[in-house]
Amino acid sequence: MRRRLLPLFLSIFGIGLITYVALGLTPVNATTVGFAYLLYVLSIATTWGFFEASVASVAATLAFNFFFLPPTGTLTIADPQNWVALFSFLATSLIASRLSTKARRRELDAVERRRDVERLYSFGRSILLIDGTEPFPKQLSRKLAEAFELDAVALYDRRTGEIFRAGPVDFEGIDSQLREAAIQGTLFADPEQKRVITGVRLGTEPIGSLALQGSHMTDSVLQSIANLVAIGLERAKAQELGHEIEAARRSERLRTTLIDALAHELKTPLTSIRAATTALLTNADQTPPSSVRMLKIADEEAAHLEELIDNTLEMAHLDSDHIDLDMEVSDLGAVVHEVVDSMKTTIGDRTLEVTCDNLLPHVRLDRRLIKLAIKQVIDNALKYSASGTPISLRAHRLNGTVAVEVTDRGKGIPAEEQSRIFERFYRSPSVEERIPGSGIGLSIAHQILQAHGGDLTVNSQPGKTTFTLSLKETM
Length: 475
Prior knowledge:
By secondary structure, the protein is of the alpha+beta class. The chain folds into three domains: 2-111, no CATH class; 130-318, Beta-Lactamase (2-Layer Sandwich); 328-472, Heat Shock Protein 90. Helix content is 57%, strand content 16%. It contains twelve helices and twelve strands. It has helices at residues 2-24, 30-47, 50-68, 80-128, 136-148, 175-184, 219-282, 289-318, 332-342, 344-347, 367-383, 441-451, and strands at residues 152-157, 162-166, 187-190, 195-202, 205-213, 328-330, 352-356, 363-365, 391-398, 401-408, 455-461, 464-472. The strands form three sheets. The protein has a five-stranded antiparallel β-sheet with strand order 2-1-5-4-3, with helices on both faces. Helix 4 runs parallel beside helix 7 (219-282). The longest helix has 64 residues, at 219-282.
């Protein structure tokens, strides 16, 4: 109310000043004075608004009647035409001031909308310029406070659970409202403190909330700010994910380089050993019989060690989320026999029964990887069954697939652990202290079969465990 007292006083004072000047002119034209009053009322409407202009209109009407319409010096009118003129003047001034006020309000609204668009553009542009020196939401809050000249900003990131603040004034006691707004997407408004709290959504998913103080905003501007904040938070999330992927990629490259270097370092001395034993065995007629036997053992064990290193390095390469396949049409039964022949030293005196159905259909497979998968399953059966019990292998057709079943007569796998044995590095608590192992063999075998579009499953009960490797038939 106090803000309106000065405009009202100046409006009435202006009418008095115009009246005083007009009375000082001799002779004076009443029509000219009326136009002067009308122009002054329009200027008041344009400057301050309709209320001040209405008061000035009434004051101008009274002054015009008292000083310029006969009989002067009274508020009475002798000529009826003057009544028409007086009321026409009053109506014209009120209507004109109303129209002028509306035009001014539209102009102010257009200026405010343009200002909001410029602020939104500035804020959107600043989001693209945010660097990695500080947390993204913290910089986002500061840029928002600067762009809209806000007293306080609080941004709640639901993904991290943190609240980031900016602005010269600090919010108090709004943490619970921010979290509620993030979950329910509700809106809290306090016009007296020029404070508003709104949810931030990406599509239909609530990802945070925003509290602003210090400026009145329309719903459209507030929603636009919330949308830009959502885009900013999603951009930050995408950047973090990109950094994580790049770090993982670099780690994988380093891992591959180390594996290749390890392979070179291990195979170099083995190559020398094999070359020496081969040379000595070539001249076996010059070597005592006992030395020949020892050389044969050394040569066989060196070959075995070389195979173990190859398999270990192969498993290390496969211990990732991507497996490259070199597919060819093969006889799975022949592959099984090749694996068994290569494991004679490992099998030793254990009984291994191999059965392959006649006329097995061919399958498309990576021969090297499938041999590694079968070897891992056989090695698992040898490791977890008693030395006096047999192990059986059977290759046959099974429900539109060609399957290899590996069965041992061990203690079996508890039902609650059967769903976990293909997890990387998982080992049963009942055997990890007694039987050495890394817990990756079955995991890699499972990955190899899945990469082929097949599967590796287990069926176990006390005294019998069967692993089934299945591949689709070649059409």
